[in-house]
Fold this sequence. Notes:
- With 618 residues, this protein is an all-alpha fold.
- It has helices at residues 2-12, 16-36, 46-59, 74-86, 91-116, 129-143, 145-152, 157-173, 180-194, 204-214, 220-237, 239-248, 259-266, 285-300, 306-323, 325-340, 350-356, 366-383, 387-402, 408-411, 415-434, 438-455, 462-478, 482-495, 500-512, 516-529, 534-546, 550-563, 568-580, 584-597, 602-617, and strands at 119-122, 125-128.
- It has a two-stranded antiparallel ribbon with strand order 1-2.
- The longest helix has 26 residues, at 91-116.
- It is globular.
Amino acid sequence: MESVEIVSKNRQRVPLGIYVFATVLLLRLFVLLRLTGSPFLFPAHGDMHFYNDWALRIVRGQWTDHLAFYGLPLYAYLLAGIYKILGYNPFLPAFFQAIVDSGTAVVIYGMADRIFGDRESLTGLRLDSGKVVGLAAGLGWGLCQPAQAYSVILMPTCWSIFVFWLLVWQIIKREKLPTFGLALLFGLLIGFTAMGVATILFVIPLFLAAIFVRWKDAGRWSCRKASIALVVGVFAGASPAFLHNYIIARDPVFLSAHGGVNLWIGNNPWANGYPRFPAGLHAGQEAMLQDSIHGAEVAAGHSLRRSEVSAYWSAKAKDYIAHNFGDWLKLTGLKVVNFWNAFRYDDLSVITTLREERVTIPGIAYGLIAALAIPGMILAWRRFPLSHWIVAALFLHMVSLLSVFVTERYRLAAVPGLLLFAAFGVNEFWKQCIAACFRPAIAYACLLVLATLFVSNPKRDPSLWALDSYNTGLQALDLNHLPDAERKLKLAYAYVPDNAELNFALGNLRLAQGHRDVAKSFYFTTLQLDPKHEGSYNNLGVLALEEDRGQLAANFFSKALEQNPKDPKTYYLLARAHLKIGDSQSARAEIHRAIALDPSQPEFQDLKENLERNSELR
């Protein structure tokens, strides 16, 4: 009997946070194991491919291209480190991310226990409200569908979310001002993480406010030292990025030069609060970044440094804001609405893809969490002063997105805070109903109805509803699942038949199906909608080359090179077209340009040697 009591006491000593961590980790590993049995473990396109390809270049020894970073570098170097030490396998970083994401659930539990923790009598039982809320919110994070998806793919999202809320937790749990060394450590963590996701910098005002408001009793001089240590730590943590840019690239860029084009995408005459790409910029990080460099250089008439590219796009955005201030204010208000709205703008369509492939498990969506969080936030504000810091963190994260745009992965960082308020509100409503306190229960229900109406305001732009079908259709086409690609791309086409990229994708689908004439029709339609569409010119050129229409092929390839004069593959194809019509001199000139841009391609060397042999025979 005594041994049983000892075991029971030992069990009680296990912190509940451990159970939260283990539960969420099991859920994440289950999703990860399902991912390994799907075609999506190895990234083939989109931002995942961008980071993975960058990491592989680093592993091969290309540590830098001696230009300022045009994309935040930390995650690519982190992947490269994992691949270098443990071998190339995307399962490994996803496994580490599952652990980190489970740590976020523990942070959620810890914040709930600290903010809402008390003991209240309820029907004769002694329940700790903080632990109840923490367990519910932690489990909610485990079941959150966006969190499931972004914890197992090659993206830095889950790492930045963990760091953001870990820092907020430090503000909430600490009663005393952090020491100089600890404040410096917090700053280092913020700066280092900013090299992967720059929105983490918006936690700095929260920390400074905590130093001078929450811990003001420490004394003015101590608060000043802690704030100085924090700021110094931020710059020291981010120093690898800006030292690379200033010293190696000789370009004055703090983190990455792609901020200018993001500012333009989020603030232009066609912006809708989501990343609607203006003419000349294609979706997908790699394609968009290349387009933005090319567009800025074409406008300038010469090559530009990365900082100059960023300045070009920033100037366009600032000019729009200055001359359309009223419209910009409306756009900013729309972004605020988008932040809370149940509509899911997942620019990568990762959530839909993994759900349809039955990788993720059924769970809860952002809209439900936001609707439940709003009344919980209002109730918590009056009773629990520490909840003010969670509200401030949510507000700062929302503000960090207003200068650019809202996507599901960007606003996902708000979910841990929203889950706290959602779980608190539901717990309070349940307690009031059990205790027959109907007035506060009815007040909560009314707030919930109003929040639901606000969150569920429908989006009427058809291009928004076409996004998932378009992205998942492209993925099916890449995997050669032509029936799925047909179904999804046709659905997207029904929404936006005048979209250039969608017509181009349908042309590629018809080409894969063997319908060459129909494919050409879609490519020509694409060029009518976007006369600078490089892909359509290239594909039409390849088709003409296969039909022995060398001059027509050369014309198409030349037009493609007008859009992108740094594409070695197009120079190679143009050389083949010139060879087809017997112009060996032009063919040699073009293949030399292709090799100068990319000497590693064996087919380029083969064509060059073939041309040299033919010249010797003559």
